[in-house]
Amino acid sequence: DETTGEKMTVRMSAPLLLLCAYCAGASVAARTRGITGGLSMKRLARASSIIPKADLSPIEDKKDKMSAAIPFLKQPETLDGTLVGDFGFDPLALAKDRETLTQYRLAEIKHSRLAMLAAAAWPIQEVLNPALARLFNLPSLVDETGGRSPSVLNGGLEQVSVAYWTSVVLLTIVVEALGNDSWGGKVAPGDYGFDPLNLYPKDQKGREDMRLKELKHGRLAMVAILGFVVQEFLKKSPVVEQTPFFFKPLGDLV
Description:
The protein is globular. The chain is built from seven helices and no strands. Helix 2 crosses helix 4. By secondary structure, it is mostly helical. The longest helix is centred in the first third of the chain and has 49 residues.
């Protein structure tokens, strides 16, 4: 009947009205998003020109970093490059932690300084000691060893005065007793505040360069003095005669 038909028409038209309302709302929302989206893209483009771009390069894993000194070995974790002269050389993994590494660095600097003195004094003694002995009418320390510097392997150390050995030992005790606070991390290892000529730079970069130069010269001197000892022990002749172009004046060679 008519009443039933009207009810069915209302029921069928209700979903259609809802669908139309949804479509209209979606259209308005799309237009709104288009406008605001355009504004947002402009703001985003403007902000991207101000904010620095992030570094997207791959992060290097320190555990897989290779040693600069020995490229086919991995760099030890304790040698992270914070110490001056650190080239990742520790093939025997002796520096287990930072405290041990600091102790080894302090020992390296001490040996470097002694080696630099020895590498200079060794050939100078072989060249000048005979002349100085004749000048002051004293026995030459290199006569017994055939012109070679007295050493454990060359012999001749018994000729050195007891007063000299005593003064060396006492001076060593004083220096070691004063020490420094490098193990506590307050000063650099080997820094005893000794700079009578005021050569130590004031800026941090200059100080690091000076410490690096000292280490490089010291490491070279340790190799050099070892070479002097081995050469003279094997060849039984002074190193100044084995390589005279290094140690003797040009006039003596002509």
